[in-house]
Design brief:
GO terms for molecular function: GTPase activator activity. This is Nitrogen permease regulator 2. It holds the Pfam family NPR2. The protein has about 575 residues and is of the alpha+beta class. The chain folds into five domains: about 190 residues, no CATH class; about 60 residues; about 140 residues, no CATH class; about 50 residues, no CATH class; about 70 residues, no CATH class. The protein has 18 helices and 21 strands. Strands 1, 2, 3, 4, 5 and 6 form a six-stranded antiparallel beta sheet that branches. A three-stranded antiparallel beta sheet has the order 13-12-14, with no helix packed on it. Strands 20-16-21 form a three-stranded antiparallel beta sheet. Strand 12 and strand 13 form a beta hairpin. Helix 6 packs across helix 7. It is elongated, with a radius of gyration of 37 Å.
C-alpha cells in the first residue's frame, strides 16, 4: 500500500523555561518557517494554535491524540517521562505525523505513531537517546519563541549529523515509498515500522453465495493455514459450488465453513457471487459505460471468456466448446434448480476431458483456428442483456455471437467488475392468513363431535405418551393412506399430533370425558398444507431471494415458485428486483 499520504513528520519538545519548540521537521518549513532554500514557502498550519494538543497536560500524555487543522490531520503520541534527572523531574516530547484530512484509512498511521512514541520512550529511558542531543542547545537558543527557525538550534541541523533528524527523514521516505521501514539505532536496537491497512469487517456470509478465489493457491505455501476446515474446503472453491454445497462436499459443518470463507473474504482472497443459472436474469448497470471506453478492460474480458477449439482424430473436425447442442443440454439441467446444485458443471462450458482419448484429440493452436472475438461483439452482448429476459432466452437470441465464449465466465466477469447485476426473485405474502386455516368442514365436524360423542370424528389426537382415544384404535388400519406410519410411530415422534381418519366408518368413538383433546382441531393443518405453508412462512417477507430459499429448503426453483403461487388465491406472489 505505498502512498505519499504523509505530508510531514516533526519532533517537538517542551522546555520548562522556553516552552514548546519544534526541534526537527521533515520537510523543512512544514511546521515552522525556515529560511533554507529547500524549505516550504509556508507552513502547513499555524503551530501556535495547536501547541496545547501537541504538548498537552500530563493527563493526556501517553495517549494517541489526533486533530484536524487547515485541511490536515495531525496524529501525535505525547510522552511524559518522570525521572529526577530532568528539569522539574519530567521529560515531555511528541513525535507527530501530518496527513491529509480526507485520508480515509488514517488509523494505520495512528498505530505507527503510537509504536514510534513507545520505542523512543524506551530508547530515552535506556540511554538518553533524545536528551543527549540537546546538551547545550537550549543555552544557545536566541529565545525566538515558539515556532522559531530550527536553524537557530545548533546541533539539530542537516549537517550536524543528528540521529533524531535522520530518523524523521527515513521514516517519512520509507513509509511513503514502501509502507514499511527498518532503521538501526545501535548494535542492540532497531526500529521496525509497517503500515497495515485497516480492513472493514467482512459482510455476513450466506449459505447460497458462491465463493471465487482471487489468488493462486499454487503460489502459496501448503498448508496455508492450520485451520482444518479451511484446508478441507479450499479444493472445492471453484466459482461454481455454493457455500452450502462446499460444506456437503468437504463434509464440514456449515457454520465453520462460513467462518472460514469469512476469513478469506476479510483478507481479500476471494469474492462472493450469486449462483449461476440459465433461468436467472442479468442486466447492465450504469458502469457499463466504463467498460465500453476501456480498451484494457475489454482485452482482459476477451482473455477471460475465450475457450479453445478442439479437433477430433484425423478428420480434423473442429468442435466448438459450448456448442448449441451442448448448451441446450446444460440449460435443461441448470434451469431445473440453481440452488439444488444440479448445475454445478457451470452451465455452457464443455469439459475437454470428454474428448480426451490418446491419439484422437489435440488442441489447435494455429492462429486461423482461434475464435475471433472483437470488442464490438462483447459490447453488443453485454448491452443486449436486460430485465425480463432470462439468460436462456438471451443465449438463444445470440447464438451466432457466442462462438468461443464461455457464458458462465462471460456473466461472472461482468458481475465481478460491477457493470452487470443479477435480477433476483423474491417471494412475498400478500395476505396474512398464512398458513391457510383449517377447512370449515373440519371445524364443524369437531364441534359436532364434542356435542355428540357417539358420532365419529375426522381425527384422533395423541398427546404425550398416553393414548387419548378408544383402545381399539391401536389396532385400526389405514388402508387409504399406505404411506402414513402407525399410531405408535407418531406417538414416539411427537408428543402432540393430530391424525387423519381414513373414513367416518372406521373412526373409533372418543372418550367423552377427554374433550380437551379436541382443542387441537382448532389449529389443525393437514400434512399437505403443513408441507406447503409452514416451511415457506419465514421466507415470505420479500427479503429472501429464491437462491436463499432453495438452498435452505433443498428444493428446485420451479418447485419453490409453485409452492409460493399455490398457497391460495392471492396469498403468495413472486417479484423481481
Amino acid at each position: 500500500m505505498p502512498t505519499r499520504a504523509i505530508k510531514a513528520i516533526f519532533y517537538t519538545r517542551f522546555h520548562h523555561e522556553k516552552g514548546n519548540r519544534v526541534l526537527h521537521q521533515v520537510p523543512r518549513g512544514s511546521i515552522t518557517p525556515s529560511t533554507l532554500p529547500s524549505a516550504l514557502p509556508t507552513p502547513l498550519f499555524p503551530f501556535l494554535s495547536v501547541t496545547q494538543y501537541l504538548i498537552p497536560t500530563q493527563q493526556f500524555c501517553d495517549r494517541l491524540l489526533t486533530f484536524c487543522v487547515n485541511h490536515h490531520r495531525v496524529i501525535g503520541y505525547p510522552v511524559c517521562i518522570r525521572e529526577g534527572k530532568y528539569s522539574r523531574n519530567e521529560f515531555i516530547f511528541n513525535f507527530a505525523v501530518v496527513i491529509g484530512e480526507n485520508e480515509l484509512d488514517w488509523a494505520c498511521y495512528g498505530e505507527v505513531v503510537r509504536k514510534l512514541g513507545r520505542l523512543l520512550r524506551g530508547l530515552e529511558e535506556q540511554g538518553g537517546f533524545l536528551s543527549r542531543e540537546e546538551a547545550g542547545v537550549w543555552d544557545e537558543d536566541d529565545g525566538g519563541g515558539v515556532g522559531s527557525d530550527d536553524e537557530g538550534l545548533s546541533g539539530f541541523g542537516i549537517g550536524s549529523g543528528s540521529k533524531v533528524y535522520a530518523l524523521c527523514e527515513m521514516v517519512l521516505e520509507d513509509l511513503n515509498n514502501y509502507a514499511e521501514c527498518m532503521i538501526p539505532i545501535d548494535d542492540s536496537n532497531t526500529i521496525n515500522l509497517k503500515l497495515f491497512p485497516t480492513r472493514p469487517p467482512p459482510p455476513p456470509i450466506l449459505a447460497h453465495q458462491v465463493p471465487l478465489l482471487t489468488i493462486s493457491l499454487s503460489s502459496l505455501q501448503t498448508p496455508i493455514s492450520s485451520d482444518l476446515t479451511l484446508n478441507r474446503i479450499l479444493s472445492y472453491i471453484n466459482g461454481v459450488n455454493s457455500i452450502s454445497h462446499i460444506a456437503q462436499l468437504a463434509d464440514t459443518d456449515l457454520s465453520l465453513t462460513r467462518k472460514a470463507i469469512q476469513h478469506l473474504v476479510y483478507y481479500g482472497c476471494l469474492v462472493l457471487l450469486d449462483i449461476f443459472s440459465f433461468a436467472a436474469i442479468y442486466a447492465p448497470t450504469a458502469e457499463i459505460g466504463g467498460f465500453i471506453v476501456d480498451a484494457d478492460l475489454k482485452e482482459e474480458c476477451m482473455r477471460y471468456v475465450k475457450v479453445p477449439r478442439l479437433r477430433l482424430g484425423s478428420s480434423a473436425r473442429t468442435i466448438r466448446v459450448g456448442s448449441e447442442s451442448e448448451k441446450s443440454r446444460d440449460e435443461r439441467g441448470s434451469t431445473s434448480s440453481s440452488a439444488s446444485q444440479h448445475n454445478e458443471a457451470g452451465g455452457s462450458t464443455l469439459k475437454t476431458s470428454e474428448f480426451d482419448s490418446p491419439g484422437t484429440t489435440q488442441m489447435n493452436d494455429e492462429s486461423e483456428d482461434e475464435w475471433q472475438i472483437d470488442h464490438e461483439t462483447l459490447i453488443t452482448l453485454y448491452t443486449s442483456l436486460r430485465q425480463g429476459l432470462t439468460l436462456k432466452n438471451w443465449v438463444l437470441e445470440n447464438l451466432d455471437l457466442l462462438g468461443g465464449i464461455d457464458v458462465r465466465r462471460f456473466i461472472t466477469f461482468g458481475i465481478i467488475k460491477g457493470f452487470l447485476y443479477r435480477v433476483h426473485k423474491y417471494a412475498i405474502a400478500t395476505s396474512t392468513a398464512l398458513p391457510p386455516a383449517p377447512p370449515t368442514s373440519l371445524q364443524t365436524s369437531a364441534a359436532t363431535s364434542t356435542a355428540n360423542p357417539s358420532r365419529d370424528s375426522d381425527t384422533a389426537t395423541i398427546r404425550g405418551t398416553t393414548q387419548r382415544h378408544h383402545p381399539s384404535a391401536s389396532n385400526s388400519q389405514l388402508p387409504s393412506q399406505p404411506n402414513v406410519p402407525s399410531h405408535s410411530h407418531f406417538q414416539h415422534q411427537n408428543p402432540s399430533i393430530s391424525l387423519h381418519r381414513p373414513s367416518i366408518a372406521s373412526t373409533p368413538n372418543l372418550n367423552p370425558s377427554k374433550t380437551e383433546d379436541l382443542h387441537g382441531l382448532n389449529s389443525f393443518v393437514s400434512d399437505r398444507e403443513r408441507e406447503s405453508g409452514l416451511p415457506m412462512l419465514k421466507f415470505l417477507d420479500g427479503m429472501h431471494c429464491f437462491d436463499e430459499i432453495c438452498t435452505e429448503l433443498g428444493l428446485p426453483e420451479k418447485v419453490v415458485e409453485g409452492k409460493v403461487r399455490g398457497m391460495g388465491e392471492g396469498s403468495g406472489a413472486v417479484i423481481h428486483r
